Amino acid sequence: xxxxxxxTTAPPLDVFLSTSNRTNSSEARVGLTVLEEYAKHARxxxxxxxxxIFLVSALGNSMVCVIILRRKNMKTVTNYFILNLAIxxxxxxxxxxxxxIPVQEMDYVWPYxxxxxxxxxxxxxxxxFASIYTLTAVSLTRYWAIVxxxxxxxxxxxxxxxxxxxxxxxxxxxxxxxxxxxYSDNSCDESWENHHTRKIYTAxxxxxxxxxxxxxxxxxYISIAGELRKRxxxxxxxxxxxxxxxxxxxxxxxxVTVLFAACMLPNNIMWMWLDFGQADQYFKxxxxxxxxxxxxxxxxxxxxxxxxxxxxxxYRKEVKSTLKxxxxxxxxxxxxxxxKGSSLSGFELLKIPRSKSTTTTVSNV
Length: 365
Description:
A two-stranded antiparallel ribbon has the order 1-2. By secondary structure, the protein is an all-alpha fold. The chain has a single domain (33-328), classed as Rhopdopsin 7-helix transmembrane proteins. The protein has helices at 14-17, 25-70, 77-105, 113-147, 156-171, 175-180, 195-231, 237-277, 279-282, 286-311, 313-335; strands at 181-184, 187-190. The chain contains eleven helices and two strands; from the N terminus they run H-H-H-H-H-H-E-E-H-H-H-H-H. It starts with 13 loop residues before the first helix and ends in a 30-residue tail after the last helix.
């Protein structure tokens, strides 16, 4: 059994096929046929979703990393946090999914040995912690820059230190999970001294990985919204244009946060229900729902780059420029002709117009 962040230790659907208790043998055969057909289609759907999520996350988040790292003017505080979020998403999907799929297809027999048992599931939990803490850091950074623009702002060097601290503090709550995971009889499961301790740890994860960060984020963005609403009535035309750009950026960050909350909520609910309500004993299809809530958790990693593409026009332009640049280099190598690669525009993923006015210090973050 795993905690609310371990994504793939649900028992196979085949377990439920063997529990059908029919009085009539012909009805039993029909019932099993229906369940077997359902299991087959569910497995195909699940594998298809995993492949799509893997490809979109790998390509999309890699593109985010390339775009931010290639340009000097992209190295802003907010963009470094976005880069860190992309790295966490890549770790979650590109490392964990390829290992998870074989385990599920082998009816949860663990083929990787004791060392990977201690690494794979904690890595998933670590990536989720890093993601939500990064979103929290972004919200607080934007709050400080917008609500207190005249005060000292977070510098890039300090932002890098904060990112390191994010990963350090993400490791701390994962340590108990690493300790209690046991590899035995070709399985990787939690081994708690008693169920009460397990419930405490599950509640701890739900609180520190979901509830508290989202409360902080919501408070920050509500305060930002109030500040932007006040400034709208006291600024001239140029400043209003700058505020509109700021508003678009904040809106995109809010959407990313809402997507995270929505994708994580079902998985958290299912594991809280399991540990505090023994849901697997009362809900026949509990583990099937868990399986698809796990997919939703992974899907969040693929959703972020799609969100940037849909909500940020500058990011769309930069993606096109980067792809054009790569294609030009490919043509140059294949054709043996010298040509200039397309120059990248002066783009920032989270661009806020710069101004000499001290009231727009927010633009430098």
